[in-house]
Amino acid sequence: MQPPASQASLTAHILADPLNPFPWYRVMREQYPVYYSREFHSWFIARYSDVQRVINDPLLFSSEQSIRSRPAARTQPTVRTLLWTDPPRHRQLRSLINQAFTPRTIANLAPRIREIVHSHLDKVAHQGQMDIVSDLANPLPIIVIAELLGVPTRDQKQFKLWSDIIVSPARQAKKQAVIEMNTYFQQIVDQRRQQAQDDLISALVSTHIEGTYLTDAEILSFCRLLFVAGHETSTNLIGNALLTFTEHPAVFEELRAQPELIPDAIEEVIRYRTPIQRLRRATTVDTQFGGHHIKAGEIVSPILGSANRDETQFINPEVFDIHRSPNRHLGFGHGIHFCIGSSLARLETRIALEILLARFKDLQRVSDVPLEHVSSSFVYGVKNLPLTFQRCA
């Protein structure tokens, strides 16, 4: 059953105001919790319990089949990698990444992250104004993931361009960006086969699963995933945090006085302005869901950003509250596809906020510069966020 004609453009409303989709999410939760979007040719899932059910059931809601259903996948073979793989292959691939992103490995990055944050803030400290996105939130995670992979940081601007295109709706440009990124990474892979270094690409080249080495296509797909996932989440989490704090200026002073609250504040930002708003799955068999008949192979899109504002799970969900407890948000997904970059994103954001609050005060958004949403229908973030500030004594 489709929504009545009067409500047939709910997703059109969301697209028209991507910085504030939350009132429309509420309409969905209350009236159309399982909603067919003609714009996206997919079923939008809005309520927390239903979103959790979808992302926790890879047998019924497949990541692998969702990517195979795309038009490009019908004309060219797709490489199964972590994001678009179901068990048991997913467990094998995930184990490789878990070895590279151990808690100790992530924690050991802290000194380098602090060094990068300080160096970028040094460049703007005397100005009294900066764009938190272009001056810090963009370059910080790109440098970190580039160094982990073994990619020269001098190419970071090109990688940011490719990454932004890949998460955008521009299909043809996306194909070209993938081709160019593959060509670049292939050169690095070839070099590492000749001379291994202490980086992730060398590890991917030398590793094997049950005696079988990864193919070049699998390695390239891993590199793309790690680079895009390794910085898009952090960039938007940092930007979303500063945007939200400027709307609640008392939070700045509270966090400056009690920096131990920063991790809880970050979790609330993840809930309140979820960096990845929705996911993509495909049903493996015909199923009844929320009173609707969904055919095998149809796309189901659980909306994390809506689940995180669900009134049945969160008290006053429209209120930003850094003391919220419990805070069982789904901002980084759940289950087997829990975001691989979540620990790194949390660490980078925490360190960035700690240093910002220690060095600057009276942080305010330049209100006459309009906010512009990133060019993506599933990522939440802003392209620019100019701030004024004063240096702490």
From TrEMBL:
InterPro entries: Cyt_P450, Cyt_P450_B, Cyt_P450_CS, Cyt_P450_sf. GO terms for molecular function: heme binding; iron ion binding; monooxygenase activity; oxidoreductase activity, acting on paired donors, with incorporation or reduction of molecular oxygen. CDD domains: P450_EryK-like. Keywords: Heme, Iron, Metal-binding, Monooxygenase, Oxidoreductase. It comes from the Bacteria. The keyword Heme applies. Belongs to the cytochrome P450 family. This is Putative cytochrome P450 YjiB.
